[in-house]
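for the record, two folds in this file. i put them one after another cuz i was lazy. first one right below, seq on top, structure tokens after. the second one comes after a little note so u can tell where it starts
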Amino acid sequence: MTQFADTASPLDSALFRDAFGTPRMREIFSDRSLVARYIEVEIALARAEARCGVIPAEAAERIAAACDIGALDVDRLRRETDNVGYPILPLLHQLVAQCGEAGRYLHWGATTQDIMDTADVLRLRAGLDVVAAEIAALRGILADLAVAHRDTPMAGRTHLQQALPITFGYKAAIWLAMFDRHAERLRELRPRVLVGQFAGAAGTLASLGEQGLAVQQAFCAELGLGQPATTWHVARDGFAEVVNFLALVTGSLGKIAYDIMLLAATEFGELYEPFVTGRGASSTMPQKRNPISSELMLAAAKGVRQQAGLMLDAMVQDLERATGPWHAEWMAVPQSFVLTAGALHQAKFALGGLIVDAGRMRRNLGLSQGLIVAEAVMMGLAPHTGRDAAHDIVYAVCREVNERGGTLAEALARHPEVTRHLDRAAIDRLTDPANYLGMAPQMVDRAVAASRAQGG
């Protein structure tokens, strides 16, 4: 039975954790997973050094066989970490004891930050794999929406006012293109970020003499990571890039969420999140159906944006080892990944079952009595009168509709300056919003084709 969690964070809360995150991402950034990564890195270092003849091969074999996360005294590890300020020395106290005589070769030539940074890179790699899979799934959902509603007309809105007709497929294609770019960004950042960190106390590998770079290369290869050109103890652009990438992803999710929430408002009624009994219910208003997934996506976007700023601040580090900015990453990186995973999960739910009310979209197109296509009338009249004159004529007719009521078509049909050049059939054709979609459907075709060509 689920118990109340001993945490002050909603990311680990028994009540809120699956609203703001996912079990898989929480596991990647859990304490147990982090310590397991520390041990994995220490074993990889021992194997690399044995391969380079720096430590005995049998010592590396013993270290790999003996290090056991299950045998750790976690309470002791917590107490010593609190005292030391870092977890590696307290962890080594116990691992050395587990390894017996071979323990003397543990952590040979390394510094605490080498182990912690490399462990974090391994976590980043696992987290980015999850994000990549979620983005790929979301792109498929968005492509399907764009195709299904390629020709579904709706009001395009600027400054929250009806502007010109678009299609819902066009809107979905814009969303899709954002995530195509995110998939491209993710592929590009991996080689820059997924590199190991093994450089010693001041980053010069001095403790290993002439073998330093060879051990570093073997160490990175052991973990499937790239070898950096230089030490990055205080060069934190890689980690900052990852979190700012996550901020871009959640920022796009926030934009989609905002669109859904606005268009789900009673006065619009064009989009709705999937119906699930009780979801989004109010404790006092039985009629409510709140867009919960969109609200959570928007909240995550705001949260990750703050962590992105923190990561940029943490880039300003002193000399060859930072006095505090490094620690800020310990807060920002896990939270950013968990929030991003949660937001992507909510997006797949909301968009995968999105209810599109095409009838309401069409009715809303008629709210302005045709004024939404005043530009179409102006452009249809311009070849006969010139663009400026056409603008003035249609502007005056629009004011008449606003003041006296009726439709734009009716008002146009009463004006000699218009009927001199356009008959009623032409007026009706020009004032039908479905006839003024521009290249919106063709843009859908281009966006979907480009997305499918890009693949995962």
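(here's the note) second protein begins now
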Amino acid sequence: MPTPIHNLTVADKTYRSRLLVGTGKYKNFQETRAAIDASGAEIVTVAIRRVNIGQNPGEPNLLDVLPTSEFTILPNTAGCYTADDAVRTLRLGRELLDGHPLCKLEVLGDSKTLFPNMPETLKAAEILVKDGFQVMVYCADDPIQAKILEDLGCVAVMPLASLIGSGMGIVNPWNLRLIIDSLKVPVLVDAGVGTASDAAIAMELGCDGVLMNTAIAHAKDPVLMASAMKKAVEAGREAFLAGRMARKYYSADPSSPTSGLIGS
């Protein structure tokens, strides 16, 4: 079991895992459940516009496989391109989840890059916070915009590492560090993770957590990759807390003692 240093607190609730996972792109619900179990994740994000959690009676319901008694369901607004659509979608999600206020806001700018539309994101965030939602928000890796979202009352800020589903990893670690250093709410990398080393790097930078979907679901063995991601997030967190050694660009430092060498 993870030690308390791996605990993540969001909106005054504490979770044992700093890895959050999505539910899309799997072969079936059974593979979804197996991968999520292997990941150790407790917060599971669901695209309200794409996955049935009760809005389509008679169709397979994801909550039968991932019940709310075992997981915190994080409804998200994937596929929304305006603030109005995002707000409407999350209000539906809250009804379906019996008033559950925690949500993930994402308002996209275009269908090619899936980059966030920040003016619409800010507009939606303000409305949702006033409406009692606990908003975790997908955003650009812009420290100014991230700070505005925190000031609006979002409970977590989730800058992209690279484009959604790209698997390109963290393309701008310096911006992430600026965001981490300037915010008090949790900062989680959202989008772009491709493999376990990307997740570890995010955690080593000081991120509070990582959210991913495609990197697990599109792996050749999703369940094994989910297990790898779990270990990577834990290792990255421990490395961050341990504090890495200083880089020495122009000199070496032997790992063994230099005094008392044979023949000296």
